[in-house]
Design a protein that fits this description.
By secondary structure, the protein is α/β, with parallel strands linked by helices. The chain contains 5 helices and 4 strands. It starts with 6 loop residues before the first strand and ends in a 9-residue tail after the last strand.
Length: 113
Protein backbone atom coordinates (compact mmCIF):
# COMPACT_ATOMS: atom_id res chain seq x y z
CA UNK A 1 0.00 0.00 0.00
CA UNK A 2 1.39 3.39 -1.01
CA UNK A 3 1.29 6.16 1.59
CA UNK A 4 0.15 9.44 0.09
CA UNK A 5 1.72 12.54 1.55
CA UNK A 6 -0.53 15.39 2.54
CA UNK A 7 -0.54 18.58 0.51
CA UNK A 8 0.70 21.43 2.69
CA UNK A 9 -1.13 24.74 2.90
CA UNK A 10 0.29 27.57 4.99
CA UNK A 11 -1.98 29.51 7.33
CA UNK A 12 -0.36 32.88 8.08
CA UNK A 13 -1.68 34.58 11.21
CA UNK A 14 -0.23 36.94 13.76
CA UNK A 15 1.29 35.47 16.89
CA UNK A 16 -1.46 36.91 19.09
CA UNK A 17 -4.10 35.21 16.92
CA UNK A 18 -2.50 31.81 17.52
CA UNK A 19 -2.13 32.33 21.28
CA UNK A 20 -5.69 33.36 22.12
CA UNK A 21 -8.15 30.51 22.69
CA UNK A 22 -10.94 32.27 20.81
CA UNK A 23 -11.90 33.61 17.36
CA UNK A 24 -8.86 33.19 15.08
CA UNK A 25 -7.39 30.25 17.00
CA UNK A 26 -10.72 28.42 16.91
CA UNK A 27 -10.86 29.08 13.14
CA UNK A 28 -7.29 27.77 12.71
CA UNK A 29 -7.95 24.60 14.70
CA UNK A 30 -11.18 23.86 12.78
CA UNK A 31 -9.45 24.48 9.47
CA UNK A 32 -6.61 22.11 10.43
CA UNK A 33 -9.12 19.39 11.40
CA UNK A 34 -11.13 19.77 8.17
CA UNK A 35 -7.93 19.86 6.16
CA UNK A 36 -6.73 16.54 7.56
CA UNK A 37 -10.06 14.96 6.60
CA UNK A 38 -9.48 16.20 3.03
CA UNK A 39 -5.81 15.21 2.84
CA UNK A 40 -4.44 18.71 3.43
CA UNK A 41 -1.95 19.59 6.17
CA UNK A 42 -2.54 23.15 7.42
CA UNK A 43 0.83 24.47 8.59
CA UNK A 44 0.64 27.35 11.07
CA UNK A 45 2.99 30.21 10.14
CA UNK A 46 3.49 33.25 12.30
CA UNK A 47 5.86 36.22 12.28
CA UNK A 48 8.17 36.19 15.26
CA UNK A 49 9.99 39.51 15.08
CA UNK A 50 8.96 42.12 17.64
CA UNK A 51 8.68 45.64 16.24
CA UNK A 52 8.65 48.25 18.95
CA UNK A 53 5.68 50.58 18.74
CA UNK A 54 3.69 48.42 16.31
CA UNK A 55 1.97 45.96 18.58
CA UNK A 56 -1.21 45.55 20.61
CA UNK A 57 0.61 43.93 23.51
CA UNK A 58 4.38 43.74 24.00
CA UNK A 59 5.72 41.15 21.56
CA UNK A 60 2.57 40.85 19.45
CA UNK A 61 2.66 42.42 16.02
CA UNK A 62 0.20 44.82 14.46
CA UNK A 63 -0.29 45.85 10.80
CA UNK A 64 2.92 47.82 10.35
CA UNK A 65 4.80 45.01 12.05
CA UNK A 66 3.52 42.60 9.39
CA UNK A 67 5.56 44.35 6.71
CA UNK A 68 8.87 43.90 8.48
CA UNK A 69 8.22 40.19 9.04
CA UNK A 70 7.97 39.11 5.41
CA UNK A 71 11.43 37.52 5.38
CA UNK A 72 10.57 35.38 8.42
CA UNK A 73 7.19 34.37 6.98
CA UNK A 74 8.66 33.57 3.56
CA UNK A 75 11.49 31.55 5.15
CA UNK A 76 8.94 29.48 7.07
CA UNK A 77 6.85 28.95 3.93
CA UNK A 78 9.82 27.93 1.77
CA UNK A 79 11.37 25.67 4.44
CA UNK A 80 8.09 23.70 4.51
CA UNK A 81 7.85 23.58 0.67
CA UNK A 82 4.46 25.28 0.76
CA UNK A 83 2.94 26.60 -2.47
CA UNK A 84 -0.57 27.49 -1.25
CA UNK A 85 -1.10 30.06 1.50
CA UNK A 86 -4.09 31.43 3.37
CA UNK A 87 -3.49 34.67 5.24
CA UNK A 88 -5.96 36.18 7.67
CA UNK A 89 -4.89 39.81 7.82
CA UNK A 90 -4.51 42.26 4.95
CA UNK A 91 -0.99 43.15 6.11
CA UNK A 92 0.16 39.99 4.36
CA UNK A 93 -1.39 40.86 0.98
CA UNK A 94 2.10 41.28 -0.51
CA UNK A 95 2.52 37.50 -0.25
CA UNK A 96 0.75 37.40 -3.63
CA UNK A 97 3.94 38.86 -5.14
CA UNK A 98 5.88 35.78 -4.01
CA UNK A 99 3.16 33.12 -3.93
CA UNK A 100 0.53 33.37 -6.67
CA UNK A 101 -1.51 30.68 -4.90
CA UNK A 102 -2.27 32.77 -1.84
CA UNK A 103 -5.59 34.15 -0.68
CA UNK A 104 -6.90 36.47 2.01
CA UNK A 105 -9.45 34.75 4.22
CA UNK A 106 -10.36 36.99 7.16
CA UNK A 107 -11.07 35.08 10.34
CA UNK A 108 -13.80 37.52 11.33
CA UNK A 109 -16.99 36.42 9.65
CA UNK A 110 -20.58 36.17 10.86
CA UNK A 111 -21.69 32.94 12.49
CA UNK A 112 -24.57 31.44 10.49
CA UNK A 113 -27.74 30.94 12.51
Amino acid sequence: MRVRSLRKVGLVMRKIQFTEAQGPRVFADRLKQIGLELGVDIVFISPERHVSGYDWLPGYEHEKGDLVNYDIVLDQIHSQNIEHVIYTVSGFTFLKMFLPKSVLFPHSFPIPR
